[in-house]
Write a structure and sequence with these properties.
Length: 327
Amino acid sequence: MKLRSLTLTNVRRFADPMEVRGFGDGLNLLAAPNEAGKSTIFEALNAVFFLRYGSWNKDARGLQPYAGGDPSVSVEIEAPAGVFTIHKTWSSAPGRKQARVTQNGRLVAQADAAEAWIADLIEAPGDGGPAGLLWVRQGEIVSEKPEDGAEARRGVLSSVAGEVEAMTGGRRMDAARARVEEELAMYVTSRGPRRGGPLEQAETALNALQSREADLQGKAQALRSALDRRRELRHELKGLEDPQAHRDHLAMRQAAEAALEAANRYSERLGTARAKAENAAIRHQATGGNIDTLKAALDEHRDAATQLGHAEQKVSDGKALMDAATS
């Protein structure tokens, strides 16, 4: 039997369905920060195989979330007969207790028949061995048959002790160490990566790829800028090729030129007005403050100031039109 996935619903901190996938053949490690729910996952896995669905003892109640509810656990397993899904729900209400075994959506067994199917699945092999399925938790070993727990414990400890003794002493240990040192020497020396070795080659290739990546990023940015400029030029070209747009552009240019010419004429008149204002001031000084002369000078000054304002406005309008026509 091989475990392929595990799903928890209403199990302690996992009020919403939580699925663990990616189990592979052989040893699987579950790593997560403290209080992330690792122990809960293993308790749920233990329950689906060893805790009967009809039970509502301390272990079953211990699976409930803080807000209450019926804890449910589903596992997908691979057995010699194919892939099966085992689902159990524990509840204080008899009508909500469930145990089902399905295969490809087809019901294989349910209720007590499902419990019997699970018991056959984890039964100890007939040719010996400590157990078909063992659960090791906090120094305890639980067999599928509680009355055989002591015998299972002795069998496991004997097997493990033999393996440890065989591995940690004698020629097997020496051969293992030699193989590890040989493999390690291919990659590193006491001073770092071995020159010309696989690790140095990998680091060199990585540096080359990083440099290549930076170069390609620069080219990609330049290409994006060139494409943006190309779109702008195509837009301008489209405007020049459109007859109506060309006529509008020409009309704006002619209007700008006319406005600029008018502004130049006003500029000339502005110079004349300034000259008149200066002459008036001189005459005022020469007449010693003659009232009539002073009034005439003031009128000329006001007229010159008004013409100056008009001329400046015309110059500003002409420049704006010229900018619009040439853009």
